[in-house]
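Note to self: the last two entries modelled the partners one at a time, which told us nothing about the interface. This time every component goes in together.
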Amino acid sequence: RFLRWTWRLTYLSVIGGLVYTGYGIYQNRTPAEQVDPDPSKKTLVVLGTGWGSVSLLKKLDTENYNVIVVSPRNYFLFTPLLPSCTTGTIEHRSIMEPIRNFLRHKKAAVKYYEADCTKIDYENKMIYINDDSEIKGSTSATEVPFDMLVVGVGAENATFGIPGVRENGCFLKEVGDAQKIRKRIMDCVETATFKDQSPEEVKRLLHMVVVGGGPTGVEFAGELQDFFENDLRKWVPEIADNFHVTLVEALPNVLPSFSKNLIDYTEQTFKEETIEIRTKTMVKNVTEKYIEAQYTDAQGQKQLEQIPYGLLVWATGNALRPVVKDLMSQIPAQKDSRRGLAVNEYLVVKGTENIWAVGDCAIANYAPTAQVAAQEGAFLARLFNQMAKTEEIETELASLSIAQEKAANKETRDDAFAKIKDLQKRLRRVKSMGPFEYSHQGSLAYIGSEKAVADISWLTGNLATGGQLTYFFWRSAYLSMCFSTRNRILVIMDWMKTQVFGRDVSRE
Ligand code: FAD
Ligand code: NAI
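The predicted structure of the combined assembly is written out below.
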């Protein structure tokens, strides 16, 4: 009897789950009618479609403003799973969410322009935008006025002016970067196996060098070694003796922002995976076939070494985008800021009243992570919703005060007075919103061979853990954070596909 009931309950919950998912998909595919944007309302321009901006747009009540979004990327990218796209563990479209689908579900319509913002004219409240895509219409450059502006343009790749990086290296920030890396890995493999290739050239072509031992470099190195162990070794056995991954880091250890025991665990795991780590090694120059790196030898002497490579992935962190640099140069209060737009505790760009900044382009004393950007975006949405409510209440209060003054009898006057009191109370509540406070949930990183490391904020402090269990936690955490049900299903299907059939070794 117990078994029968268990079976019935399981059956009902499966049916319930399917109906719920089906309804979600139906709703997603049939958006409701939208209210037209209201030009009489304040124009809120949002730059970017990354973690910060999309998190703001998700929670923003778009009926309160005339909202315009400008970004050269018409999709949101779930960056934490981008390293998995470089080897085909996950297909890139599984972690992209079209911005059009998402905006179409907002109550009031939002305008979207696929363009780069090339200049922000702070004095004249105007941005200049440029459509840089291949297809050109009658115009590809124009201007957009704003009352309020949110800058969420992220950051670009830091090269520290090291010669040859841009020309010869691959970055890992956008979908195009991951596609380029995937193609290059297979190009190196196929070229290395070309008839009569010299042994030195085979060695060079199969040497995969990653510069930067931060989370991006570490995760990519782990994914690449997995690709070799699980797939390449099997399908192209002749490369097995020469395929080699090296991670080069200027500091004494990798993952400097993680706990000491997780750093040791990662370094030990890499050793077992045969990924070579070269710490205290600073890359100074990059040519087409080798990098020049400086290290200190056993005698304490600085030495310059040439390291040949087939693939070079450059992951040395963030740098300012030109549009942000230019805005900073227009505002005297930003003169001492170096790494990004200095903001106050309400994320207002210092020295301005109507410009806010979120994510990697803002400096608010937090690490440039998706977690910070998403929380900042959600905070701004709450702030803007409250601001709109405040304005609404203040207008209502003003008209009630006039009505009270003009009231013909005591009853109407008392009635207006009671309403005013009530509104004043609501206004105080609305205005009492505190400043932005970041709540750190923890840091996670995949380190290869189905292992991950995690520094998790716990009730009593910090929990630092690494291994296979952490890897399952890593997977479930990122799965739950995916943008949409569609993304989640696609990622699960990709993981299953990789498990069953292995990764695709064809070169696109
Ligand atoms: P982004 O998400 O980079 O978005 C910037 C947006 O601005 C983009 O839409 C871009 O197209 C647009 N844009 C650029 N220039 C202009 C312009 N001139 N005008 C208009 N729009 C413009 N963080 C974590 O917390 N956990 C992780 O696991 C993690 N993994 C990562 C893995 C990788 C490979 C990378 C590269 C980063 C990872 N991060 C992670 C960091 C995280 O992705 C960033 O901190 C986050 O994306 C910052 O969000 P953002 O909104 O500031 O910028
Ligand atoms: P990073 O700034 O975290 O690390 C870059 C590393 O490159 C540094 O350790 C630096 O010492 C090294 N470096 C710089 N110049 C060098 C040179 N010339 N030669 C050798 N080494 C050099 O950059 P990363 O990994 O791109 O991350 C950027 C941001 O995104 C960080 O805030 C990070 O926390 C976040 N992120 C988080 C992830 C996660 O939580 N899993 C994954 C990826 C990124």
